[in-house]
Amino acid sequence: MWLIQLIESIGFRGVRPIEIFSNSEPAIKLTESDQINPRTKHIDIQLHWLKEHVIAGNFMLQYIQTSQQVADGLTKPATGRCCL
User: Fold this and answer.
1) How confident is the model over 27-56, as pLDDT tens digits?
2) Are 23 and 66 in contact (CB under 8 A)?
3) Helix (H, G, I), strand (E, B) or coil at 2
4) Rg (CA), the chain
5) What is the model's pTM?
């Protein structure tokens, strides 16, 4: 959000909404839902922050398959095999 505000302050427009890709359909549905579920009461304040920004139109959550998520490889341990 800080970077978007900086870009908009120097005159660039139309950089919102920021697309966030996730391979977790339940997480996406949770941010789009207005219902409060007792099983999700433990979820951190970050969900509420993200939910507010989704409603405000700052972010748009998109589903992407795990195999197509480029950054997902950076979150998994290396297998020791080279991919070259």
Assistant:
1) 888 887 766 667 666 666 667 788 888 888
2) yes
3) helix
4) 16
5) 0.60
The structure tokens listed for 27 are 């997480």
Residues 6+ apart with CB under 8 A from 27: 61
- Cβ(15)–Cβ(4) below 8 Å: yes
- Quickly list DSSP for 23-81: S-HHHHHHHH-----GGGTT--HHHHHHHHHHHHTSEEEEE--GGG-GGGGGGS---S-
Count of C-beta atoms within a 10 Å radius of residue 59:
19
Query: At 11, is the pLDDT very low, low, confident or very high (cuts 50, 70, 90)?
Result: confident
Q: Please work out, in degrees rounded to the nearest 5, the angle formed at the alpha carbon of residue 13 by the alpha carbons of 69 and 60.
A: 35
